[in-house]
Amino acid sequence: MNRPDARQAMDALADAHAALLDAGQRTPCQGWPDGSPWLSEDAEERVIAAGLCTSCPLFTACDGAAVAHRVTFGVWAGRDRTRGLKAKE
């Protein structure tokens, strides 16, 4: 996870977030104080989060960071990357 490309991808995402905030804008995931539903253990909540990502201006940078870090939990760039958690019954 400490590969240089992963670090660069996460730095690029952080820089893009900062620039967006400086412009007075937010990403959909920044509107939730605890990251929910993007980091929810509930699959249905993650489906909702994924749908909110479609209009995000940082979609590509977010995807790059997730791929570079080999993320295995949560919604990144509109894709649920969670492994092993099923929807509540």
Task: Describe this entry's structure for a reader.
The chain has 89 residues and is mainly alpha-helical. The protein has helices at 4-22, 43-52, 59-69, and strands at residues 75-76, 79-80. The chain has one domain. The protein has a two-stranded antiparallel sheet with strand order 1-2. Strand 1 (75-76) and strand 2 form a beta hairpin. The longest helix has 19 residues, at 4-22. The model has no long low-confidence stretch (mean pLDDT 88).
Tertiary shape: globular
Give the helix tally: 3
The parts where pLDDT drops under 50 for at least 5 residues are none
- What share of residues is helical? 40-55%
Q: What topology, given as strand order, has the largest sheet? A: 1-2
Integer count of domains: 1
Number of strands: 2
